[in-house]
Specification:
CATH architecture of the domain at 134-225: Alpha Horseshoe
Strand content: under 5%
Shape: elongated
Number of helices: 17
Order of helices and strands: HHHHHHHHHHHHHHHHH
Largest sheet: none
Radius of gyration: 30 Å
CATH topology of the domain at 134-225: Serine Threonine Protein Phosphatase 5, Tetratricopeptide repeat
Structural class: mainly alpha
Number of strands: 0
Oligomer: single chain
Distance between the termini: 72 Å
CATH class of the domain at 134-225: Mainly Alpha
């Protein structure tokens, strides 16, 4: 299956704005009119349009994301084995004919036989239940690929009826209740169960739980989930983006700037990210860090056009750099509130004392 995220050069958790920005840039660079007669650019241009057609449509994107999830997990073994545990039993040795037969031996052999039957039957019962649950889980994943989430939810319920220890089944139910039903309380319950049953760090479950907690305004709990993911080797760039956004919203500007800087290093095209980094530094009066972040972004080829000149004027006023401060002052409208405020600060900082 084509990886549309790779075609557009964005992460799986990229926002709609990032996807749109990446598409515009690639469409401009690979447009056939700029490379007449070159079939390579024509093919790439078709792939770029196809990827944007899918990822720009929320419904199609959700269906496509489920297909990616299914493809990545389809051949991976489950954390919980579905095979019945094999047990080997040794037949008791036959007593020597020379020995006098114990009158109670027949009872012991009979009891041993019944124990073997009970253990084997229990193992077979558990194994069949797990096997049946696995079949229902795979059917649910197939239905989700077709965007038939109602039928998928029924299959997941059946899977959990046969085996109530399937982390992936709880995770998928949590996603259905969050994405399609918008019932975040139930979604959170299923995600908690998926995490509880998983033997390893269930990255997708933690990440979705953090997003759900942000939606229901459990900000501290969401921050704890994101911090855990940041410390794990399986973390993705989007973890730092959501963590930075959360801390920015909570006015934890120092942490917001730190997380967003990690994301910006790997995604220099994120102009909104750079703006929030600079704004966060200014809020805690770290003028030097704000100007340094801007300079570093330029060196990395980041998009600096979205950074308001007002912010950069304040940053360079704070670092006593009149030349660069004046450079951004000229871009301001001196008639509006931001322009007047910056002008007053500039005059206070650089005008000679009488």
């Amino acid at each position: 299956m084509k990886d549309h995220y790779t075609v557009l050069g964005v992460s799986r958790y990229a926002s709609a704005e990032e996807i749109k920005k990446a598409y515009k840039k690639l469409a401009r660079d690979f447009h056939p009119d700029r490379h007449p007669g070159n079939s390579y650019y024509e093919e790439q241009f078709k792939l770029i349009n196809e990827a944007y057609h899918i990822l720009s449509d929320p419904s199609k994107k959700e269906s496509y994301d489920f297909k990616l999830l299914y493809q990545s997990n389809h051949h991976q073994p489950s954390n919980h084995s579905t095979r019945a545990e094999e047990k080997t039993y040794t037949t008791p040795p036959t007593p020597s004919p020379a020995r006098k037969k114990n009158r109670y031996s027949d009872y012991w052999y009979t009891a041993f036989f019944f124990v073997v039957v009970i253990v084997a039957g229990t193992a077979l019962y558990i194994g069949m239940n797990r096997y049946t649950a696995g079949i229902h889980l795979e059917e649910a994943k197939t239905l989700l690929l077709r965007n038939q989430w109602r039928q998928a939810n029924v299959k997941l319920t059946e899977a959990l009826t046969f085996n109530d220890a399937l982390p992936e089944a709880y995770f998928l139910r949590g996603k259905i209740f969050n994405v399609y039903l918008h019932r975040n309380a139930q979604a959170l319950m299923f995600l908690n169960k998926a995490i509880e049953l998983s033997d390893t760090l269930y990255h997708d479950a933690y990440f979705l739980r953090a997003k759900v907690r942000m939606e229901i305004k459990e900000y501290n709990a969401a921050s704890a989930d994101l911090d855990l993911l940041k410390s794990a080797s399986s973390q993705t760039d989007s973890v730092y983006w959501y963590s930075g956004e959360l801390h920015y919203f909570l006015n934890n500007y120092a942490q917001a700037a730190s997380d967003l800087q990690v994301f910006l290093t790997k995604h220099p095209e994120c102009g909104d990210c750079l703006s929030k980094i600079i704004y966060s530094h200014l809020q805690v009066r770290h003028y030097a860090e704000a100007s340094l972040a801007f300079s570093k972004a330029i060196q990395q080829g980041a998009d600096t056009t979205l950074v308001p000149p007002y912010l950069m004027a304040l940053a360079f006023i704070g670092t006593h750099d009149s030349t660069r401060a004046n450079q951004f002052m000229r871009q301001l409208n001196q008639a509006d509130a931001f322009g007047k405020s910056a002008q007053e600060l500039f005059q206070q900082e650089f005008s000679p004392n009488p």
